[in-house]
């Protein structure tokens, strides 16, 4: 971003990105700044007195690539806004360059230096070829012998079973939510069956593998389903393919049909901890499948 001035607390708690400030700043600049870089044009030589140096360091711009980057952004700013200030700076950019102050968080600088060192090391390793030519050996490839023709024919069920060895510990990171799909309107309007198509057992295993066993989800409404932290327990049983036990666990709850009606609104999904930054576990889908 390019701006022509900021007030107090500019770039406070900034975590990333780049910003160029072509004018004055207010007090307490860069307080709590942990990432990103700010380039400030200090025309009146008073910027450092307004800078909060607790987490950042200030210095000139010396890297040619950074200088080109700053100039390019100012040119874009002038092109899109017609800024007179940007035009004056670009007319004599070399004169204005020493006035720029680069504000960089100390920890962010350390991370950038570590990444640059790793990239340089990887590049050196890529071209680290031996100077002495080695002895070439011929590779003998032996064809595998089949003891029986049946060995060549894969067992589809076994392959599928191996593919379904899911990671319950990291499932919430690895697997996406499986959602029920609505049936076609042309068919669902002609019967009294469910509105959506239920998930099959394999999809439900993916769904239950996403459960983090937090014990949090429960219906928050006053007349809702007081199942407390039983949800992760039956999710675990479904994942282990223990459907009878899952049903017994589910029947320990009381869904109060006289209050909630035939269709549960499933507010427990809204309380799912995974829903903070991902799609929540399909608790309602699993519950319907158990029943």
Automatic annotation (TrEMBL):
<dbReference type="GO" id="GO:0016491">
    <property type="term" value="F:oxidoreductase activity"/>
</dbReference>
<dbReference type="InterPro" id="IPR051394">
    <property type="entry name" value="Glutamate_Synthase"/>
</dbReference>
<keyword id="KW-0175">Coiled coil</keyword>
<feature type="domain" description="Glutamate synthase alpha subunit C-terminal">
    <location>
        <begin position="1"/>
        <end position="66"/>
    </location>
</feature>
<dbReference type="InterPro" id="IPR036485">
    <property type="entry name" value="Glu_synth_asu_C_sf"/>
</dbReference>
<dbReference type="GO" id="GO:0051536">
    <property type="term" value="F:iron-sulfur cluster binding"/>
</dbReference>
<dbReference type="InterPro" id="IPR028261">
    <property type="entry name" value="DPD_II"/>
</dbReference>
<feature type="domain" description="Dihydroprymidine dehydrogenase">
    <location>
        <begin position="189"/>
        <end position="287"/>
    </location>
</feature>
<protein>
    <recommendedName>
        <fullName>Dihydroprymidine dehydrogenase domain-containing protein</fullName>
    </recommendedName>
</protein>
<dbReference type="Pfam" id="PF14691">
    <property type="entry name" value="Fer4_20"/>
</dbReference>
<dbReference type="InterPro" id="IPR002489">
    <property type="entry name" value="Glu_synth_asu_C"/>
</dbReference>
<feature type="coiled-coil region">
    <location>
        <begin position="132"/>
        <end position="166"/>
    </location>
</feature>
<dbReference type="Pfam" id="PF01493">
    <property type="entry name" value="GXGXG"/>
</dbReference>
<dbReference type="InterPro" id="IPR009051">
    <property type="entry name" value="Helical_ferredxn"/>
</dbReference>
């Amino acid at each position: 971003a390019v701006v022509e001035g900021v007030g107090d607390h500019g770039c406070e708690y900034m975590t990333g990105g780049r910003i160029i400030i072509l004018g004055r700043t207010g007090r307490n600049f860069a307080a709590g700044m942990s990432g990103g870089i700010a380039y400030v044009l200090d025309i009146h030589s008073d910027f450092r007195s307004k800078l909060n140096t607790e987490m950042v360091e200030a210095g000139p711009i010396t890297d040619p690539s950074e200088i080109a980057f700053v100039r390019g952004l100012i040119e874009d700013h002038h092109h899109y806004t017609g800024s007179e200030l940007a035009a004056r700076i670009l007319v004599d950019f070399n004169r204005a360059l020493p006035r720029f102050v680069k504000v960089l968080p100390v920890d962010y600088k350390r991370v950038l230096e570590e990444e640059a060192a790793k990239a340089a090391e990887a590049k050196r390793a890529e071209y680290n070829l031996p100077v002495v030519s080695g002895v070439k050996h011929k590779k003998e490839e032996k064809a595998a012998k089949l003891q029986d023709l049946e060995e060549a024919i894969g067992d589809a069920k076994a392959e599928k079973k191996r593919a379904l060895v899911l990671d319950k510990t990291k499932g919430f990171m690895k697997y996406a939510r499986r959602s029920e799909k609505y049936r076609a309107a042309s068919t669902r309007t002609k019967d009294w069956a469910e509105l959506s198509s239920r998930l099959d057992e394999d999809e439900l295993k993916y769904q239950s593998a996403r459960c983090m066993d937090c014990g949090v989800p429960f219906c928050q409404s006053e007349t809702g389903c007081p199942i407390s932290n039983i949800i992760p327990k039956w999710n675990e049983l479904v994942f282990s393919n223990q459907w009878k036990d899952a049903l017994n666990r589910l029947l320990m709850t009381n869904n109060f049909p006289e209050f909630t009606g035939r269709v549960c609104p499933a507010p427990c999904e809204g309380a799912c901890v995974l829903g903070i930054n991902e799609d929540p576990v399909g608790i309602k889908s699993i519950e319907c499948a158990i029943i």
